[in-house]
Amino acid sequence: MKKNLYLITPDFDGDISSYLASLKKSIEHFSPKRVQFRSKNLDRKQYIEMAKCVSKLCKESGADIIVNADVDVFNELQSEVDGLHLTSVEMTNTKERPIPSEKLLSGACHNIEQVKIASRIGCDFAVLCPIFKTPSSPKGIPVGWPSFSKMVSTTTMPIYALGGIGLDDYDTAIANGAFGIAAKRGLWFTENILKDEG
User: Fold this and answer.
1) Rounded distance, CA 188 to CA 25, Å?
2) What is the torsional sign of CA 191, 128, 89, 34?
3) Staple 91 to which of 17, 37, 86, 114, CB 3.0 to 4.6 Å?
4) What is the pLDDT of residues 107-139, one digit of tens each?
5) Domains: count for the chain
6) What is the C-alpha to C-alpha distance for residues 21 and 43, in angstroms, rounded to an integer?
């Protein structure tokens, strides 16, 4: 049975060919249903240019492409992407669904209040994080599986587990009510994966 995986890209490293090659290998190796292009180190123009490249690759692979950007950037890319991801702050400041219903809306949640907000503004799915501490969010308060399960049970909105987890945690995530898992390092292809699986 195919797993519900949501790949969140690492920041763009400056080498387009290498970055896109790693993304292609990641999609081929893990077969994520969705890819969120997240790169906070790019300015607006750079992000839009890279998002178009990422979108083309995702479309060829059959994965949904979600942009982690503001609504204005999404509107400029709307014909080329499948959806928009809102940070918890953006989501909290949003009164109603900011994009058309035929596009996917994702939200970042860290607590039960944000899960309720995501549901209220019409998010199609959300990520709840961090399950465990991660290098990218060292100050984040871990949710843990018991609290994750309790929060997920309050909504019918699909929720991905994110933060300090990988494929080995998939069954545990599903058992605790997750729709699937989202990951950056855990779903990004590196040569070490071949060594680990060899």
Assistant:
1) 8
2) positive
3) 86
4) 999 999 999 999 999 999 999 999 998 877 667
5) 1
6) 22
